[in-house]
Structure formats: C-alpha cells, structure tokens
Amino acid sequence: MADLNAYITETQIEGDDDGPLAGKTVAVKDNISTKGVETTCGSKMLEGYVPPYDATVVERLKDAGATINGKANMDEFGMGTTTETSYFGATLNPVDTDRVPGGSSGGSAAAVAAGEADLALGSDTGGSIRAPAAFCGVVGIKPTYGLVSRYGLVAYANSLEQIGPIAPTVEEAAGLLDVLAGPDERDATTVEEGADSNYAAAADGDVAGMTIGIPVELVGGVDESQRLSSANQKSSISGDADEGVVETFWDAIAELEAQGAETVEVSMPSVEKAVAAYYVIAMSEASSNLARFDGTRYGLNVTDVDGAEELADEGNWNEAFAKTREEGFGPEVKRRILLGTFALSAGYHDRYYGKAQDARAWIKQDFDESLSEADVLASPTMPVPPFELGEGLEDPRTMYLADANTVPVNLANLPAISVPAGESDGLPVGMQIIGPKYGEEAIVRAASALE
Amino acid sequence: MSEDEPAVSAEEVRNVADLARVDLTDEEVEQFTAQFTEVLADFAALDEVPEVESEPELVNVMREDESEESLSQEDALRNATETEDGYFKGPRVS
User: Fold this and answer.
1) Does residue A318 sit within a domain?
2) What is the pLDDT of residues A36-48, one digit of tens each?
3) Strands A211-215 and A376-380: what pairing?
4) Residue A300 placed within a domain
5) Tell me: the pLDDT tens digits for A284-309?
6) Which of A1, A74, A375, B42 has the greatest number of CB atoms lying within 10 Å of its CB?
7) What is the count of structural domains for chain A?
8) Over the stretch A313-340, which tens digit does the pLDDT of each residue have?
C-alpha cells in the first residue's frame, strides 16, 4: 500500500509489562504531549518542540501496558476536516488513497484503518475524532466533556474539546476509553464519572427496547446553505446531504429496528445555527490560546526567520512576534486566529461571541428535550462521503459546512460515537450516535448492534 | 451575502492581523478580505438566535496553594532558542 503519511514521528514508547493494553500499539495524535518525543500539532510553529512532560492520557496508556508507536498526522492545530492543512503533508485515506481520511485526527484514523496501529488517540473539538473515523471506516468516540483529562493536550478550543479513542471495533474503542477516563487533579474540568468505568462491557449489541431519536434537521432534506445564512446566495455549496450517505444511514437504522430498537423523529431547530456558533466560539478561543506561540519559550523563533533578528535587536517586540507567527502558522490557522480576534473585538463581541453563547445554550436545551424522548440520537456522522484530495482547500466554508452534524455535540458537551454503517459507492459511511451526559454506555451499546 | 452585510475591507483585515500579531502578505490580505466577507455573512445567521437563560456547568475547583515538585528550570528552558542566566530571552522592548 502507498505510504499514507499517517505519522509525523514514528517512535517506540514502551509501556508497562502488563495491563489491559499490553501488546497493543497505539498511535497518539501529535497535539498530545509525549515526554522526550517531538510534538508538532502538525505545525511548522512547533517543529522540533520536545515536551518535557507526558499528557495524563499518555501516562494512562503506558500504565495500561500500551506501546505508543508514533505521533499521528493531523490538521495544523486541529483546524481542518481533512488532515490536508498539516505542515507535514496530507494523510491519505487507506480505503481510497485519492481521498482524504477526514480530520483533524486523520493520521490516527488512517493508522488504525490500515492496521499500522491497533488503536489510536484523537482529539475532537467539533468532530475531529468522528469525521476521520467515518471516512476511514473505523470507530471513534468523543467522550462527554470532562470525562477525559486534557492535561498535556495542546489547546485549540478548551470549552469544546476532548481526547478520545479510535479503534477497529466498538468494544476496543470502549475499552480504550476505560483506560483514558477518570478524574485528574491537573485538569480541573474532569469529573468523577468514568473513574471505575466498564464501557467495554456495554458493547453487547442489545438494543431491544432502546429508543433511538432521529433529528430531522441532521438527516438530509435540509439545504446545508440554509443552516448558515439564508441570505447568502453566493454559496457554491450544493447543500443537501449526499443521497448515498442518507440511504446507507436509513438501511442501518432499519437494521437496528430489526433488532428491537424503536425509532422516533425529533426536531431540533437550534442545530441550524450550530456551525456558525461553533466557528465563532472555536475561533475566539483559538485566537486566545494560540497567542502563546511567539517563539520565546518554545517553537519557531524570530532569530530563525530572515530579517526578524534585526527586528528583535532593534526593540520591535510586537513586530518580531508578528513575523514569527507569519512564518510559523499556515493559512487556516491564521484565518481562524484573525476571525476569532475579530469576533472578540470591541463593537463585535456581543453580536458574534455573545450570540454564539446563546446559540450554545439553545442547542443544549434542544438536546435535553430530544433526549427526554429517546435514549440516544442518531444521524449520519458526515453528510457526505470522503472528499477527494484537494477538493476543499480552496474554499474554507465548504469544510466548515461538512461539520454540520458533529459540532452540535461539542456545543452541548455530550458524548457521541461514530460507527461504520455500511458503504456507499465503495466508500465508508459512518453513523453518529449521541447520548446524554455521561451516557457512554448507551452509545456503545447502540453502536455495537451495527457490527 | 446579504445586502445589509457590509463587505470586509482590506484595512480591517490588516487591523485585526495587527491586533493578533500576525503579519500578512499582500496576497493573504486580498484572499482573507474576500473570505472573511463570506464567513461573517454566514455568522450573521446568529442574529436570529433567541436569548436563552443558562446556568454555567462548570464549578470552581479549589486546592491548597502548596509548593510541590515541578519541572526543573533546565527542562523548562530546553525548548527555548535563546536563554540567558536561566531565563527566557525575548526580543528587546523599546
């Protein structure tokens, strides 16, 4: 098989001799700190950066006996849906090497799908575990916010992101989550739930009597461009969810019904604002988080950049930083930092950031209502099949819209799994199953019924 | 984009890049100006969001402020291109 470029750094970090993951190789997304092993976030800015400490999840992997066999490729700082924004080149989808593996945890999903690693860690800010799991035909879980420690995860948008597992089967993904989950004094947003979890045991495929809600807004029929702005007529985006994807989704739902699950339609009008709310919040948090990359304590330094040394010596502190950041960040990262800075700036804060927080609360309410009518909710993970390489790089908005089904979950802090639902034209289609807060067992159970 | 949504100007893009401490090439300014106009028009969809009462889910977590083992100074400085006498060395401030 072609070199997929799934890894930025190949390595061999040995864990303990025994434990639940003994003998297993795990690819770790390159925004998760590994002591003594380069951690780049897919960015020129952090090329050569070697963390002096392990992320909590890396410690837990080692304690569980896993061998970390590499740092997985990713969209730069997690900002992308295709893994094409990586400074270290795109990762190819092992199912079809002319297509992207999804993102931003594309290297993690590709490594698992190709058998280059038994398991992988990704991080999910707006779908970055679920999208590549769907595109590569593997399983990915975005845990409830607070279930897994973010200590040692290089921050993109703190209020939205969680580290989670990617694996070939639901049971293995759930078993890896059992290793990761649980409180950590070094991340004050972690919770007690998950401390003694046994999510793997929930992969029993028993969906008899389970109620599955299907949000009509997330399953085709809705013109995607309407979700953002009904007035935006310039949109070149065709809109509707892909027919083959929707068909495959309904076939999988029928399969669950055949096993005794009940389905019910639910309506969540708020999710039509989710993409806009997500991008405003994520970009705003990114503009603040990425302010730390100025080259002084780590990362690309002004003295490495032509002409910047002079600036540094002449006493132009801000200019020297701005030059470093021009060189170190790629276009998508610059776009998000600038849009976030704009959304938070005087005169615009209330209109963008303030309204996005209202939308977030509204979306949470809609999920609460829907999950009072159903045990879990289901939708296609991605509205479209895997993009061809290069297809979306020109128009960032195309990529933003592809996240329509995944971002509502992060805004609501809920858990969700992407599980293979079948194929459309030979390409994998993922089903997303969303649970209530700390409802990991329910989504694992429902997803395992599709295997 | 909607008619009441003014286009983003190149000057605004330069201003926000200045605030964010990110230099841009002229080509980037031109590209971002067009893209930001479209993206901000998309964000205008938020105008129609109702006000919603919500309680923050997070709580403050307190602990005693006690000194404990941490990174050594050597480890903390290891990734810096320039250091001096155990400190990070940044660009000069005029």
Assistant:
1) no
2) 999 999 999 999 9
3) parallel
4) no
5) 999 999 999 999 999 998 766 666 66
6) A74
7) 1
8) 676 888 889 999 999 999 999 999 999 9
Tell me which residue in B5, B20, B52 faces A337 most closely, judged by beta carbons.
Answer: B20
Lowest model confidence (mean pLDDT) among A47-56, A160-169, A341-350, A373-382: A341-350
Q: B10-48 domain in CATH 1.10.3470?
A: no
The fraction of chain A above a pLDDT of 70, given in percent, is 93
Residue A223 pLDDT exceeds 50? no
Phi, psi of A298 (to 5 degrees): -165, 165
At residue A86, does pLDDT exceed 80? yes
Q: What is the pTM of this model?
A: 0.94
Q: Is A185 on the interface with B (CB under 8 A)?
A: yes
Per CB-CB distance under 8 Å, the chain B contacts of A360 are 54
A296 to chain B nearest CA, in Å? Answer: 5
Element (H, E) at B19: helix B10-19
pLDDT at A189 over 90: yes
- Residue A112's domain comprises 1-293+329-451
What's the whole-number average pLDDT of chain A? 93
Task: Please tell me which residue, A132 or B61, carries the higher pLDDT value.
Answer: A132
A268 within a domain of the structure (yes/no):
yes
Catalytic residue among A33, A43, A86, A104: A104
Sign of torsion over alpha carbons A66, A70, A72, A77: positive
User: What is chain B's alpha carbon radius of gyration, rounded to the nearest angstrom?
Assistant: 23
* pLDDT confidence bin for B22, thresholds 50/70/90: very high
Please pick, among A123, A128, A225, A424, the residue that the annotation labels catalytic: A128
